[in-house]
Amino acid sequence: MRQMGGVAEWVGRDRELATLTASFQALRRGEGSVVWVEGEPGIGKSALVSRALDAEGDPEWDIGWGTAGPLSERLPLRVMQDCLGVRPGSPDRLRARAAEALQDQRQGLHAASYPPVARIEELLALVDKLCADTPVVVVIDDLHWADDASLIAWHQLAISAGQLPLLLVATVRPTSRPRVRDLRAAVARQGGAVLGLGPLPDADADALVGKVLGAPPGGELRRVAAQAGGNPLYLRELIDALTREQKIRFGPDGAEVSEGLERLSVPLASVLEGRLESVSPDTGTMLRAASLLGCAFAVTDLTVMLGQPAAAVADGVREAMTAGILAESGPALSFRHPLLRQALYESMPGALRSALHAEGARELASRGADALSVAQQLSLSGCPGEGWARSWLETAVPELTVRAPRLAADLLRREADECAADDPFRDELMAGLVRALLAAGFHDEAMSRASRVLTEITDPVRLAEMYAVLAQVQASSGQNATAVATLREALSRLDLPPGWRSRILSLTSMLARAESGDVAAAEAAGGEALSVAAATGDRFATSQALLARWLTRSVRRDHAAALDCAEQAVRVAGDDPVHADVRSLAHDARVFTLQNLARWADAGEALRDATRADQRDKSPARRTGGTAAVYWYWTGQWDDALAELDLDHPDWVPGLDYTHMREGWPQLLVHGVTALIAGRRDQRTTAGRHLRQGLAVRVQEFVVRENREFLVAAQALALEQSGDTRQAMNILAGFAHRHDGELTMTYQWLPDLTRLAVSAGDQALARSAVQACAAEAAAETSPGRAAVASLRCQGLLRSDPDPLREAAERFRETGPAVELPAALEDLAAVLAEKGDEGEARVTLNEAVALYESFGAYWDVRRADGRLRPFGIRRGARGPRGPRGLRPASGWEALTPTEVKVAALIGAGRSTSDIADGMFLSRRTVQKHVSNILAKLGARSRVEIVREALSQGVTA
Predict the structure, then answer these.
(1) What global pTM score does this model have?
(2) For residue range 112-168, what is the model confidence (pLDDT) as tens digits?
(3) Which residues make Cβ contacts (< 8 Å) with residue 847, sequence separation at least 6?
(4) Of the candidates 904, 892, 952, the residue with the CA atom closest to the CA atom of residue 929
């Protein structure tokens, strides 16, 4: 654990200290919390945290303390890894395993533009597991410098703190950085402590001077000390400097300054640099070299920078530590305060610093140092490297692009722009730059660079990759037609490698279908892609081609053939981590098609297979939980669906989640499913909020429009609830016509359109809906969900109970759960119209009981309202209140999934272990735990364990 600041700085701050002490005491009870400490540099933020922790004695907690710096923004997760002690060779088994997993992660073809989701999840899972063994304290100094990925991780930990024995502390300077300000607001919203440290009051400043000197300060000394403005660091350094220079005299009344110093004015930087005078010249030289490496550094890197063995610098390190300049920081060393390092660094002329950084980068590279260490020095040199740098970058870029894409992009941009046209490294530098720009999220520049690269590089493989990358970026930016033209230009080249020809043909098939709706042309391209891939034995290309064929088969409603394509794609992709992204897409396709075939049990098992594969791959491709949420929606497990799509978390910060995609479809799906569930539960405020957010998403791409169906259904429901049936019908009427090449399963929403049209007396629209649904059913090569939906539409139009009765029986046999009560409601209404009150009442009762089982209270009201004109009420004696409703609080309020999660918590499982065992995401389990705590009125997992034991529930 790293202690910041000396004992002399530990004065005053009683109120803030009491807040921190309360957090530590809560941690002893197993309750987590978040503390945000902010103030100017040197104001004593870290010292306050150290003081509170020191007061706890020596608790058997897992404590991590890390510091961000100016370079941290370009080093994803570096500060989090350092803080948590995640490094190869760690004596701790969990940390060593996490370090190994982070090193092994590679990106697939389509993962370049994603944030480092898998690496974030690895670190969050580590904290989960550490918390299962002992309380954990995580302190990040200078969080304002941290990279975006570390901010995401910190935010996720802040959300977890209320569920784990985890104390999360951040020290922050005042900043205008939006994401840091958003995090501060989130901490305040969740009830975390936000401590603002200002200058020390005069009495506390005098006490600090007295503690440093061992005697109370006299009047003149107090006036000299006042120039520190109550800043503890400046004040201590000022007093130390005066002491070293023997400018303080001691008398019976205390300490006083020598004559002539009453108007002393010394800049802080000069005071800090003056501390070097207390060490030898050789140690001073060593410290300046160390300042080139940052606030914290490895001793091995320092020896390389100095060109000396470790034994030669040992005395200097000891001297610097004795002088209070350096301190231990885990296996590394660090400057006692960032301002000390800054003063040393800025004492060297800029030209000298640049030369030393360049020289250090070369030496580190020649010794095989960590790629990030070399890259930092190369970046700080501020000028292009020599031939060795380009050669080193060619081999280091793949690792840098994953670990620090912004830093990689900066270096490659600089080198590529200065590289001569005949330089042998030029092609790889330019291609690597495009990959790094994508990984860093600089899509517009990636598009521009890729276009330029196509005219300059000659290597066929790199050229093919750039065509594919450019087309994908163009498509994600809404330029679908341009993307198709780019791919066709690539296909016209005679030097296109066969493996890449297959991949580009597959992309052409998918994008051309979306652009023109020409399914025949898409099938032709997909078929050629599959033939070329099979001939080359390229498994990735084969899987991709099979997915292109799956898409066209699905559009044609040949679900049996589509399922065969999806299952082949899964098998061909195998377990190779390089194929993680295409494998994830293939699993999603399999789940989707099994649902279309009404094979719901098989779809559930396929979803577990998909989750199992994603957990193994730690795939960044599954970020929204959309596939799972849609499955849970149709099967009536709405709480599980909402847990997958948890945007309603009170501490969710826009821009600090994993949905960094440029395409809008994840947002449409998330807001659409959430709004529809909320609307059907009669939670109109929540539904309205998600409708507004979803409808605000810019919709241009054909693929994005295909994912609006839940949002459209939710919008129609809201209009129906407000009494505007006509407008609700107009909204749903769009499903009566499926565009050429469109994938949308329109039949899912046509029964509702038919119901509304019949009730409004619009027979023409009702017939149009029935005909559209019949066409969907006729298109199915194997009878699936469209066939059953068509039965509902026919029964509603003709007021015929027989098709409705048949539809209900089909739903009862195969599912999905959500559609059975809807068919029963329709049947009850038609039976009532026919005068069969007895069967109508029985059918209504069954429909309402099913609606209530997943909380569809609006549906209950609608069903009652449809039968009320016929004098039919639920039961024998008129209307009853809701039956079988789950209580709002207490153990009985828990859903079946929440009961299982509570049992696993009782068994001592961490959040990550529960996620692995239940085939859920860690974030989904986290949402379930949050729900359990709220329903039980519990404050920690310890209380969940007690309640589970008292209920006799075990895993």
Answers:
(1) 0.76
(2) 444 466 788 889 889 999 998 899 999 999 999 998 889 989 998 998 888 899 999
(3) 821, 822, 824, 825, 828, 863
(4) 904
